[in-house]
Specification:
Layout: H1 5-15, H2 39-47, E1 61-67, E2 73-79, H3 81-93, H4 95-98, H5 127-138, E3 143-148, H6 152-155, H7 159-166, H8 168-173, H9 183-193, H10 207-224, E4 229-233, E5 236-241, H11 244-260, E6 271-274, H12 282-290, H13 299-315, H14 321-330, H15 338-352, H16 360-366, H17 376-388, H18 392-404, H19 411-420, H20 423-430, H21 435-447, H22 453-457, H23 460-468, H24 481-487
Antiparallel strand pairs: 1-2, 3-5, 3-6, 4-5
Helix pairs in contact: 1-3, 2-3, 3-9, 7-9, 7-10, 10-11, 13-14, 13-15, 15-16, 15-17, 17-18, 17-19, 18-20, 20-21, 20-23
Length: 499
């Protein structure tokens, strides 16, 4: 399916700018949005004052740490708006040369015009569709290969984007400064602008990085698809082979093609598996079979189901066992008051796996009593735990619930949030409305070194929203990004979602 240029640009800016690529946008609380970051605003930013301070090339970004099931964080980026505007407009202008990535049949995550305005959604297929595709690939074959690219986004060499876009020979013949205006060199340059002009790695989170990674990996697919049956979910490969020798040849060829673009296979995750094999993990099958069958699930049955999930999760610490189970329950009809049995268990599990915190919203809403919020103490503990481990997502969701349900944030929690120096958490602390918290956040903002543009860039989201409310002066003395966005009515907060 082709993606229209205008849809692409609006999507990059208004829907796929913040790190919200899962179907439910659960990476960040819904109080954040880039809907007012329109193409018109982006064009004004690109036409504004360029950064001309000696020693600063490109822009830095806000870090936002997403927690995996094993507790390890993955650092996502919220890019500086001006740098991102340059890159988004460059991709838009030259989309006719890049849109081959939208028709690549080997890729399961290719650009598409989704109804919510996004063109990249990073969710796995529905179980039935995945089963049908696996059966088609496995039929008549005896081996399956699983492998992926080692540290895909952090390992991308930006010059390789040009190699993939126009071919090695043409890109290398036009690599000298005299050819800097060539569109593919401009694309390379503007990708680098998002990360201090560094040539190694691309920002994780914004959809521009999905575009440039697909630009490269689609060329690898071009070299392999005629000889092998396989599919790719981002940088995860699954191939179906008639012999073990063919399986080993797929691994060798894939590694060879990736190496041309300075990318490596993840040897630790490379496996050759004899067929037939189960089409889903054992834990997923057991949970699916054990889901209570009654039309309405009681609190007792729900708790027993979660007990099973906890036992299975101990055997699969890297799997999404608890999330799969809790999400499955919340997708079913529950008996009256069942949420009061499920929520305490879910809160306890969320203490250990912050990835569950977004799922609490439905349960909290269902257990809300007039004039009383029953879980303030648990939120305090969750906030302290996530602050201690510097988990942006866990802390953001805890603070979001504090603000939404107007729960007072203790001084202890506020102090720990301040100690994290986490940009998103500090903004949410400011949004609590507590005067002392707001004064502390404003004092922190004013303490940042305005002469260090990279440090200012690392907090641009907090600083902009404070500037927009006239709480601080513009920290960028020689740049007009904040002025342009404020005059254009841009905010990265969705006030309606907080209520």
């Amino acid at each position: 399916m082709s993606v229209g240029k205008d849809f692409l640009l609006a999507s990059l800016l208004q829907h796929n700018f913040l790190p919200m690529q899962k179907k439910a946008k659960e990476e960040m609380p819904p109080v954040f949005s880039s809907i007012t970051f329109t193409p018109e605003v982006a064009k004004k930013l690109v036409a504004g004052k360029p950064r001309k301070v000696e020693g600063y090339q490109g822009f830095d970004a806000v870090d936002y740490k997403l927690t995996r099931f094993n507790g390890v964080s993955r650092i996502c980026s919220i890019p500086h708006p001006t740098g991102y505007a340059h890159l988004a407009l460059c991709i838009h202008e030259h989309w006719d040369k890049l849109d081959y990535i939208a028709t690549n049949k080997n890729s399961l995550i290719r650009p598409s015009q989704h109804s919510d305005g996004r063109f990249i959604i990073m969710d796995y297929e529905k179980s039935f569709e995945k089963t049908k595709r696996n059966l088609r690939g496995a039929f008549g074959r005896r081996f399956m290969v699983h492998t992926d690219v080692a540290n895909c986004f952090p390992s991308i060499y930006t010059h390789a984007i040009s190699w993939a876009a126009v071919g090695f020979d043409h890109a290398k013949k036009h690599a000298k400064p005299v050819h800097a205006s060539e569109w593919f060199n401009q694309l390379d340059k503007k990708v680098r602008w998002l990360k201090r002009n560094e040539t190694q790695g691309v920002a994780i989170g914004p959809a521009t990085s999905n575009v440039v990674s697909e630009v490269i990996l689609a060329r690898v697919d071009d070299a392999l698809r005629e000889d092998f049956v396989y599919f790719r979910f981002m940088d995860d490969y699954t191939a179906y082979c008639e012999t073990e020798g063919e399986a080993q040849e797929f691994i060798r060829r894939l590694a060879e093609e990736l190496a041309k673009y300075k990318m490596l296979l993840n040897i630790k995750k490379t496996k050759v598996i004899p067929l037939p094999t189960a089409l889903s993990a054992d834990w997923a099958t057991e949970l699916a079979l054990s889901m209570p069958k009654s039309e309405e699930i009681s609190g007792y049955d729900a708790v027993n189901y979660l007990n099973l999930a906890v036992r299975l999760a101990k055997d699969t610490p890297d799997g999404s066992v608890l999330k799969f189970a809790l999400k499955g329950l919340l997708g079913r009809k529950l008996e009256f008051m069942a949420e009061f049995d499920i929520l305490p268990y879910a809160l306890t599990l969320s203490f250990h796996q912050p990835v569950l915190l977004p799922l609490l919203e439905k349960l909290l809403a269902a257990t809300l009593l007039p004039g009383a919020f029953l879980y303030g103490e648990q939120l305090q503990r969750l906030a302290l735990e996530n602050a201690r481990f510097r988990r942006s997502d866990g802390l953001a969701w805890a603070l979001y619930y504090f603000n939404k349900y107007e729960v007072s944030i203790s001084k202890n929690v506020a102090d720990e949030v301040m100690a994290t120096r986490d940009c998103v958490a500090l903004l949410l602390l400011y949004l609590s409305g507590d005067v002392a918290n707001q004064e502390n956040v404003i004092e922190f903002a004013n303490s940042l070194n305005s002469a260090d543009l990279y440090e200012i860039d690392q907090y641009w989201l907090l600083l902009y929203e404070l500037y927009r409310e006239d709480k601080i002066a513009n920290p960028y003395a020689d740049e007009d990004t904040f002025e342009i966005m404020k005059d254009s009515g841009v905010s990265f907060l969705n006030a309606a979602a907080a209520t």
